[in-house]
Write a structure and sequence with these properties.
This protein is α/β, with parallel strands linked by helices. Helix content is 61%, strand content 6%. The chain folds into 3 domains: 412 residues, no CATH class; 117 residues; 75 residues, no CATH class. The strands form 2 sheets. The chain has a 5-stranded mixed β-sheet. A two-stranded antiparallel sheet has the order 1-2. The chain is globular and about 85 Å long. This is Glycosyltransferase RgtA/B/C/D-like domain-containing protein.
Length: 620
């Protein structure tokens, strides 16, 4: 019975990953920021191996270049690409990492309280995966890749603090991976580690002083501590080298940037409202999808009191279970520390549209909120049961596993709440195939990415595909993202590749004197006609409801001089994807039709080759 229950729990936790990989991986190619991550990972086994993570926007206001703390994600992807160098290798590698993190989480839950604890916890675990299904579970984009390792780290730290010694090694590896991937997570891992370490030391001191209990022998921790220390040094070797070689490097940059953000940030009140809305009522981890705009609204008085009540219930449960199930109290303390630390860090988010709606700044609320709810629920169960959760019969466990299985099925049959953009992958595949046959493999080329963001999404994907096929490429923008070697644009003797993306019929013209058209994607007549019909229908619907000002949720985002048609052809889809159109507008069938039409490759995308100047060729 226990073996079967464990197998079902494991399978239900893996289904969301399989469903997400099947959905996102269909025709997938790295584009935009994901292509930057994968391109940089190709340098891992070279002299230009990255010591730090991706560049961060944290230093934009101060002019100081700041990076996310470490390169572990690059190392994982780079190793996978050495084994199998395919476009989807990075997607599969991150899926495996996240799946292993989830299995590790379930394993240590079982070690803490047996199969019943894992079974009773499975609805919350699978609900978290159901809410995050899609690209968040499988994408190499660094803020997304940190979330499941963070979730597992919290459980491993609680297990280690409760006496499961080898959980410490897992906590070091997974915590280092999560902390290095994104700055938002770094402080949360540190807060959780400090909390659980403090609790463990406090428990050890109390047991040493108590004549009725035997304190654990320090020797029993010697080997796990040595292994954990060795893993810690290995995981943080890159950032440590950066500190030594660059006289403080990224650490000094982070300190100076943090000290400079005194105003113009999200602030205490708004950060607290975000945390309250993430925890209250139906918490974010139990909602069908990720929507950041909903977190930005002011919290109501009822929501604030709900969170206070939830925390008080968790505190009472932790106090009541401190002898029979001390892990519950440790989990509650850890969840509280993470939520408080995360809210404090949110107060420092620069108050501009890009950072306020950036998903990576808020994703930590999903595992942190689930952890608080789980610890509060466990405390109530232990306090109510005379002999802890073991008194619960198999019926309760089977019911919990049934809920988890239902959520796993929902991951398969319900649509992805964050539809995967397919057009960019099509553009990238077509253009890179044409370029591979027209470029000289003995020359060095520059990819022009210092242009419009929409152009860059495809340009970065084309850059990666050319690098993967053996071309020597340089960049003339985003230098910190690519390392020193790829940033030496002066090395190019083959010329500059300029990508242009426009609507059919809009004549962009050549990007410079002597530019030659060498690759082109022209959409089909059917796709163009369907797009025009969708735009006509949506423009008419907007006109009937009173115009563009009634569509955008935040009026200050909309330029009053923009006509209804210009909005539909321009920024409307961006507002819809980020949640900045009203709910009624988002639910219109005309909106859904435009999303479908735009997901097809309907743009004219070209690549021109601008020949190298004589000065550049002579330098070469």
């Amino acid at each position: 019975m226990r073996l079967a229950m464990g197998a079902v729990v494991t399978a239900s936790a893996l289904v969301p990953f399989a469903a997400s990989l099947a959905d996102v991986g269909r025709g997938w190619l790295p584009v935009a920021d994901t292509a930057i991550v994968v391109t940089r990972a190709r340098d891992v086994f070279t002299a230009d191996s990255p010591l730090l993570g991706q560049p961060s926007t944290a230093g934009d206001r101060t002019g100081v270049q700041v990076h996310h703390p470490g390169p572990l994600e690059f190392w994982v992807i780079g190793a996978a690409q050495k084994l199998v160098d395919r476009p989807a290798t990075s997607l599969v590698a991150i899926t495996v990492v996240n799946a292993v993190a989830t299995l590790c989480l379930l394993w240590w839950l079982r070690r803490l309280g047996g199969i019943r604890t894992a079974a009773l916890s499975s609805p919350i675990v699978v609900a978290l995966l159901w809410s995050l299904r899609g690209d968040i579970l499988v994408s190499p984009l660094n803020p997304l890749a940190a979330i499941l390792p963070l979730s597992a780290t919290l459980v491993c730290l609680v297990a280690a603090s409760s006496g499961r010694r080898w959980a410490l090694a897992w906590a070091v590896v997974l915590g280092s991976y999560a902390a290095q991937a994104h700055l938002t997570v770094t402080g949360l891992v540190g807060a959780a580690a400090l909390t659980t370490t403090g609790v463990a030391l406090g428990r050890w001191v109390l047991r040493r002083r108590s004549p009725r209990t035997a304190a654990p022998e320090p020797r029993s921790w010697r080997r796990p501590l040595l292994v954990a220390a060795a893993l810690l040094v290995a995981c943080w070797a890159g950032p440590l080298v950066d500190v030594v070689v660059n006289r403080g490097g990224n650490v000094v940059a982070l300190v100076s940037t943090g000290a400079a953000l005194d105003d113009g940030t999200l602030g205490w009140a708004r950060a607290a409202d975000v945390s309250v809305r993430a925890l209250a009522g139906r918490p974010v981890w139990a909602r069908p999808g990720v929507e950041t705009r909903a977190l930005g609204a002011p919290a109501t008085t009822g929501q604030r009191w709900f969170v206070v009540g939830l925390w008080c219930i968790g505190l009472a449960g932790a106090a009541a279970s401190r002898r029979r199930a001390p892990a519950v109290g440790i989990a509650f303390a850890t969840a509280t520390a993470v939520l408080v630390t995360g809210t404090l860090l949110m107060t420092r988010i620069p108050d501009n549209l890009f950072n306020v709606i950036a998903l990576g700044n808020y994703l930590w609320l999903w595992p942190a909120g689930a952890f608080l709810w789980a610890s509060a629920t466990a405390g109530c169960v232990v306090a109510a049961a005379p002999r802890t959760a073991r008194s619960l019969g198999d019926g309760a466990c089977l019911a919990a596993v049934g809920v988890a299985c239902s959520l796993a099925v929902a991951c398969v049959v319900t649509p992805n709440p964050r539809p995967v953009p397919r057009a960019e992958a099509t553009y990238t595949r077509v253009l890179s195939t044409q370029l591979a046959t027209s470029l000289d493999r003995g020359s060095v080329y520059v990819m022009d990415i210092d242009r419009a963001m929409q152009d860059n999404e495809v340009a970065l994907g084309v850059l990666l595909e050319l690098v993967r096929q053996g071309f020597e490429m340089r960049v003339n923008g985003f230098a910190p993202s690519f390392g020193p070697r790829r940033s030496r644009a002066a090395d190019a003797d083959g010329g500059v590749l300029v990508l242009q993306r426009s609507r059919v019929g809009a004549d962009a013209g050549p990007p410079g004197p002597g530019a030659n058209l060498i690759a082109e994607h022209t959409p089909s007549d059917v796709a163009i006609r369907e797009l025009a019909e969708a735009e006509d229908a949506l423009t008419e619907r907007i006109r009937r409801v009173g115009g563009a000002s009634h569509v955008v949720a935040l009026p200050e985002l909309h330029d009053e001089g923009t006509s209804d048609r210009e909005l539909v052809e321009g920024s409307f889809l961006g507002f819809q994807q980020t949640g900045f159109v009203t709910r009624d507008v988002a639910a219109w069938p005309e909106t859904a039709a435009l999303v479908r039409a735009r997901s097809a490759p309907v743009d004219l995308v070209t690549v021109h080759l601008v020949p190298a100047t004589p000065a550049t060729a002579q330098q070469r």
